[in-house]
């Protein structure tokens, strides 16, 4: 049996505040946040390097828990890192549709979004009224990444304002990847 994997929290642009479900998980379960040098003017190469360093430092396998731009980071990292084989699974929540005209210019460095299948199991959770993507695009992105799509209905950007609290339903998805593999 292998060791319990390290859960890495990958917030999006501007980080996740204290009421965000990612921050709540970090406090409740000891998950490790991948800190970025600049949360407000993100550079893809810097963010990918930070994720690579955290996966390298983990004592064994990892589970990735990404929100918004963190989902796009996951896809960019997985497309280039040989360490992607250490990922047991990825929870990808509310990825932004970066090719929209109304996307903040600060996110341009993350375009284009990789379209290849992720080399690990993934679940992509999306909302029907997310201000940064639409449901049809999100479903198509799940298909491109080989992720299981989960439609949350009208929950906004699936962040602190969505009223999810500790979001136990999503933690159950992560828990299946936390079990020791034989």
UniProtKB/TrEMBL annotation:
Record-annotated membrane-spanning stretches: none
Gene Ontology molecular-function annotations: hydrolase activity
Domain of life: Bacteria
Pfam families: Ser_hydrolase
Protein name: Alpha/beta hydrolase
Organism encoding this protein: Ralstonia edaphi
Lineage, top ranks: Bacteria, Pseudomonadati, Pseudomonadota, Betaproteobacteria, Burkholderiales
């Amino acid at each position: 049996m292998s060791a319990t994997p390290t859960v890495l929290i990958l917030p999006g642009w501007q980080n996740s505040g204290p009421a965000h479900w990612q921050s709540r998980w970090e406090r409740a379960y000891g998950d490790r946040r991948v800190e970025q040098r600049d949360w407000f003017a993100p550079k893809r190469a810097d963010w990918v390097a930070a994720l690579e360093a955290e996966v390298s430092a983990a004592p064994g396998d990892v589970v990735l828990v990404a929100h918004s731009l963190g989902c796009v980071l996951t896809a960019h990292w997985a497309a280039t890192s040989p360490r992607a084989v250490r990922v047991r699974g990825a929870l990808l929540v509310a990825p932004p549709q970066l090719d929209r005209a109304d996307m903040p210019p600060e996110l341009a460095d993350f375009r284009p979004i990789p379209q290849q299948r992720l080399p690990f199991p993934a679940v992509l959770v999306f909302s029907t009224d997310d201000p940064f993507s639409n449901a049809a695009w999100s479903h198509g992105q799940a298909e491109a990444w080989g992720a299981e799509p989960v439609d949350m209905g009208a929950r906004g950007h699936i962040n602190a304002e969505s009223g999810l609290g500790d979001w136990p339903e999503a933690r159950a998805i992560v828990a299946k990847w936390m079990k020791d593999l034989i």
